[in-house]
Amino acid sequence: MVSFGYFPSVRVALLLAFGALAALASADRVITVPTGRKIPFKSFRAELWFEPTKNGTTEYYFGTGLSDLFEIEVRSQRLPGRDVQNAVDLSYNLIGPIPDLTPGISIGVQDVADATADGRRPYAALTLRQTLTALDGDANSDVTIGFFAGDRGGPFLGVSLPITTRIRLLGEHNRFRASGGIEYVPQKGVALRYFARGSQPFVSVSLTRRF
Predict the structure, then answer these.
(1) How far apart (Å, rounded) are the C-alpha atoms in residues 51 and 53?
(2) What is the pLDDT of residues 162-211, one digit of tens each?
(3) Could you report the per-residue pLDDT of 30-81, keeping only the tens digit for each?
(4) What is the domain count for the chain?
(5) What pLDDT is attached to residue 32?
(6) What is the pLDDT averaged over residues 132-154?
(7) What is the distance between the alpha carbons of residues 17 and 120, in angstroms, rounded to a whole number?
(8) Which residues form the domain of 142?
(9) What is the CATH number of the domain that holds 182?
(10) Rounded to whole angstroms, what are the CA distances from 91 to 62, 105, 173, 207?
C-alpha cells in the first residue's frame, strides 16, 4: 500500500480538499457565537428569526463568502418600539475543520461598527469536528471554543450534536448569555430552528445556496 507520508505535496492537497468539503457542510455560527468555519466562497446564507410572542423581536441575517478565506454577514434587529439596529460581522477562516483530524480556526470581528447592545467584539474561534453515530447513520458533531476580546470579552463555548442526520441539538454560552435549541434540516441548504437566546424564544428559517 502506498503511504502518502512520502509525498508531502499530495498529502497537503488532500488535507486542503477535505477542509474545503468540511467547510461546505456548515455555516459560521452555532446560534450567535462564531465557529472555526465559514460560508463557502460563491455561496450565501439568508436567515430570518422571529420571536413568536406579541410584539416580538424580528431579526434578519445575510452572509456570503467573499473569497475562500473571508466572510461577511449583515444583520438587522427590529425591536418593538425601538430603532432598528444594524451590524456587520467579518471573519477570516485560517482552515476549515477536517472531521476526526484537525480543527477549524477563524478570527474576526462581530459588529464592526459597534452598533448593537452586544457591541464590537473581536474573536478567535476553534472548532473540533468529530464523526458520531446518530440514530440513522453517521453525522458530524462540532465543539467550538473561543475568546472574545474587548470590554465585554471572555471565553465562549458552542456545541452542535446530532440526534439524526437531519436533527441536531444546539447549545452555546457567550460568557454572559446561554442559548440552546434544536435544528431540523428537511433538505440540503434549508434549516429550521427553535431556540432560546437567553430568555427569548425564537423560530428561525435559513437558506444556503451557491451562486
Answers:
(1) 6
(2) 999 999 999 999 988 999 999 999 999 999 999 999 999 999 999 999 98
(3) 999 999 999 999 999 999 999 999 889 999 999 999 999 999 999 999 887 7
(4) 1
(5) 95
(6) 94
(7) 33
(8) 4-210
(9) 2.40.160.40
(10) 14, 10, 19, 20
Transcribe the chain into DSSP letters: ---GGG-HHHHHHHHHHHHHHHHHT--SBSSSSB-S--PPBTEEEEEEEE--STT--EEEEEEEESSSSEEEEEEEEE-TTS--EEEEEEEEEEE--BTTTB-EEEEEEESTT--SSS--EEEEEEEEEEEEEETTEEEEEEEEEEEE-STT-EEEEEEEEESSSSEEEEEEE-SS-EEEEEEEEEETTEEEEEEEETTEEEEEEEEEEE-
